[in-house]
Amino acid sequence: MNIMFETALKYIDLGSYDKAVENLNKAIEEEKNSGNEQTAIEYTCVLGELLANMGKKNDSRKAFLEVFSYCEKNKALPKQREIAAKFLASFEDAKSAKPIQNKAFISRQMRKRK
């Protein structure tokens, strides 16, 4: 396993997500440069999940599109393909969903009128 990937996992455990993203990107680049495209895609899937959890939807979507595309083209990594597909679908659902105002929001707005 790549040392930068291991370091990224440690940063995730510590809650240092920006450092984890930095190290994941380095690990992905190292694997691509070494010709280990499949390992790079596995790491990209982890990166996509981390970015999604950080609220960076656009960056996460980009990572998951790369994962999904690789998996489809090479008929490989079914687990990563499934993860990518689920996240991409959730991003699309969130785009098309209309904002819902809950009771608390409506109550606050009504009090402002008085």
Description:
Helix content is 82%, strand content 0%. With 114 residues, the protein is mostly helical. The protein contains six helices and no strands.
Produce a short descriptive summary.
This protein has 114 residues and is mostly helical. The chain has six helices and no strands.
What value does the average pLDDT take? 88
Rg, Cα atoms, Å: 18 Å
Strand tally = 0
Q: What's the tally of helices?
A: 6
Q: Which percent band covers the strand fraction?
A: under 5%
**SS-derived structural category:** mainly alpha
Uncertain residue ranges: none
Element string (H = helix, E = strand)? HHHHHH
Question: Span from first to last CA?
Answer: 63 Å
| Molecular shape | flat
The biggest beta sheet is recorded as:
none
The helix fraction, in percent, is: over 70%
Key terms for this structure?
flat, 82% helix, single chain, mainly alpha, 114 residues
List the helices and strands and how they pair.
Elements: H1 3-14, H2 17-33, H3 37-53, H4 57-74, H5 78-96, H6 103-113
Helix pairs in contact: 1-2, 2-3, 3-4, 3-5, 4-5
